[in-house]
Amino acid sequence: MTDKKYAWRTRDIIMIATIGVIFGYLFTFWNMLWEVLKPLFLFFPPARHIIYGFWLIPAVLASYIVRKPGAGLIAEFIAAFVSLPVSKWGLDVLSSGLIQGIGAEIIFGLTLWKNYKIPVLMLAGAASAFAAWVHDWIMWYGGTEPHILVAMLVFIIISGIFLTGLGSKYLGDALKATGVLSGFP
């Protein structure tokens, strides 16, 4: 990939870092919301994973804006790193960030970082969600009953498709409309 279109510019690095830092701070509030909303999901705890996709947005949003290999992975890791000091999950958020970023990057990589249409963004959100689910299953839910794990998977994938994939599309387009993304595709 020595093609000039894959070369990183200073503005790419700044954009990726900005997305990562902003979402890292937002994760602090999302972590609190995750706990505050817990009682609303007592009827069926796996349903809470319908809001999980917010944690995956940096990977898809950064990829959608910058359109270079590694953009999503790095933004997701930066967000995880920034959220680390206040995360109840400790150092595991770093592995989560890497795994979630890799999930999205795989989809963009399959298109050679050329396709950023809605179906691809939704698929990248779903792939990031699936990667997050596998990680969480191994780290946190090893003894969970299979039907609960499947329900968690369904809700997290739906969240990845809509909250992450479509959410990144609409957020990216809204940012572009303001002019702050001039110089990006």
UniProtKB/TrEMBL annotation:
InterPro entries: ABC_thiamin-permease_prd. Keywords: Membrane, Transmembrane, Transmembrane helix. The chain crosses the membrane at residues 12-30, 50-66, 120-142, 148-166. This is Uncharacterized protein. It comes from marine sediment metagenome. The lineage of its organism: unclassified sequences, metagenomes, ecological metagenomes.
